[in-house]
């Protein structure tokens, strides 16, 4: 399918190389299998992680410790191509690099960085990020998970986390907890006594992704398990901004995949003696879908350039996540209608993307939270409470 606006012409040669390399990886390693993964609700994290690490996609926007140190647009392009395959693989890469690795890279001690970041960049160790709780999603400041120092100087961690990507396959969890000194982050090896994780089943979205609940039962951690540079909600929220930026791009990939499937189907499916793409109503749907996808891509590219210039704000990322997740879901729904009954089968990617995008609309900040963030930026008035 031709890109009428030729948006990728604005990428550098290196960024186009990352695009093509990631797209080839997805074509060879994800697309032939992802329908089965989705149907069976499995994700081969251990098998894929080393290959993703070898390509330099894990923590690719971080510097040092075996990370590629690439620019924000390059990271965004990779997220776009990964999510064109499936939201699950982009989520894996985002959680590994933008949540778990970024938290250690930004807020960790020299020892924590040296211990975990090289292994995580290589895909030898998998990370997860424990912030959301069963009763505290959009309001993480009210979390109940808590950590207390005992006389020995160790931390005793108790509580639980919910909807944690990679949770039951992770080697290390970044866990945020209430302490006497406010909210702090902890680097938690998952083989520590008192840690347990249960995979969440019966999902109808992000089925090709590991989603888990985490539990901490009188879990003893050494005094140096705390992230020394993170205090309060600013730490975890800055990590979420990193991950949300990847979603801004990833949603474009899912939407593009649905549009491409719809164009291909409409130009080959014949009814009343001609391809359904020859009917005005179908062309109107396709045209509006392309307008939405192209505008979403322009938003992602603009935010990427702002990020590379060091000028991006959390409010701008909220705008991008809100707009692009909504556009991608609308695009998937229109594509499903063009494919008719075939649109609900896993022989085509549309219903899989459509179901996944229902989660994308919600996680890393719900649509309502991002609306209020944009509203506050416009009015100066806080409507969260």
From TrEMBL:
InterPro entries given in the database record: Acyl-CoA_Oxase/DH_mid-dom, Acyl-CoA_Oxase/DH_mid-dom_sf, AcylCo_DH-like_C, AcylCo_DH/oxidase_C, AcylCoA_DH/ox_N, AcylCoA_DH/ox_N_sf, AcylCoA_DH/oxidase_NM_dom_sf, Glutaryl-CoA_DH_mitochondrial
Assigned keywords, A-Z: FAD, Flavoprotein, Oxidoreductase, Transit peptide
SUPFAM superfamilies hit by this protein: Acyl-CoA dehydrogenase C-terminal domain-like, Acyl-CoA dehydrogenase NM domain-like
Highest taxon listed in the record's lineage: Bacteria
GO biological process: fatty acid beta-oxidation using acyl-CoA dehydrogenase; fatty-acyl-CoA biosynthetic process
Stretches assigned to the Acyl-CoA oxidase/dehydrogenase middle domain: 128-219
Gene3D superfamilies, alphabetized: Acyl-CoA dehydrogenase/oxidase, N-terminal domain, Butyryl-CoA Dehydrogenase, subunit A, domain 2, Butyryl-CoA Dehydrogenase, subunit A, domain 3
Cofactor: FAD
Annotated family: Belongs to the acyl-CoA dehydrogenase family.
Protein name per Swiss-Prot or TrEMBL: Glutaryl-CoA dehydrogenase
């Amino acid at each position: 399918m031709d890109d009428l606006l030729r948006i990728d012409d604005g990428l550098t040669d290196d960024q186009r190389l990352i695009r093509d390399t990631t797209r080839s990886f997805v074509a060879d390693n994800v697309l032939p299998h992802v329908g089965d993964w989705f149907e069976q609700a499995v994700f081969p994290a251990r098998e894929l992680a080393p290959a993703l690490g070898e390509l330099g996609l894990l923590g690719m926007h971080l510097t040092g410790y075996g990370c590629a140190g690439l620019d924000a647009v390059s990271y965004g392009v990779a997220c776009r191509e990964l999510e064109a395959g499936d939201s699950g693989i982009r989520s894996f890469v985002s959680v590994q690099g933008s949540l778990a690795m970024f938290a250690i890279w930004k807020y960790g001690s020299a020892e924590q960085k040296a211990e975990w970041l090289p292994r995580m960049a290589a895909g030898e160790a998998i990370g997860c990020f424990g912030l959301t709780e069963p009763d505290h999603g959009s309001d993480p400041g009210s979390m109940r998970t808590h950590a207390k120092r005992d006389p020995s100087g160790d931390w005793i961690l108790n509580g639980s986390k919910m909807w944690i990507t990679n949770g039951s396959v992770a080697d290390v969890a970044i866990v945020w907890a209430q302490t006497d000194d406010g909210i702090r982050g902890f680097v938690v090896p998952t083989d520590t006594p008192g840690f347990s994780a249960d995979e969440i089943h019966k999902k109808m979205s992000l089925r090709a992704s590991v989603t888990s609940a985490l539990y901490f039962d009188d879990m003893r951690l050494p005094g140096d398990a705390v992230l020394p540079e993170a205090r309060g909600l600013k730490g975890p929220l800055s990590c979420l901004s990193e991950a949300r930026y990847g979603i801004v791009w990833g949603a474009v990939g899912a939407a593009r995949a649905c549009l491409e499937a719809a164009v291909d189907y409409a130009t080959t499916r014949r009814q009343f003696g001609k391809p359904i793409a020859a009917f005005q109503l179908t062309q109107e749907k396709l045209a509006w879908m392309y307008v939405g996808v192209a505008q979403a891509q322009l938003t992602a590219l603009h935010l990427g350039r702002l990020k590379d210039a060091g000028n991006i704000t959390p409010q701008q990322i909220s705008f991008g996540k809100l707009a692009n997740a909504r556009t991608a879901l609308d695009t998937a729904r229109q594509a499903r209608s063009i494919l008719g009954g075939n649109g609900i089968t896993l022989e085509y990617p549309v219903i899989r993307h459509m179901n996944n995008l229902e989660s994308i609309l919600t996680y890393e900040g719900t649509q309502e939270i991002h609306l209020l963030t944009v509203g506050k930026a416009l009015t100066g008035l806080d409507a969260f409470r």
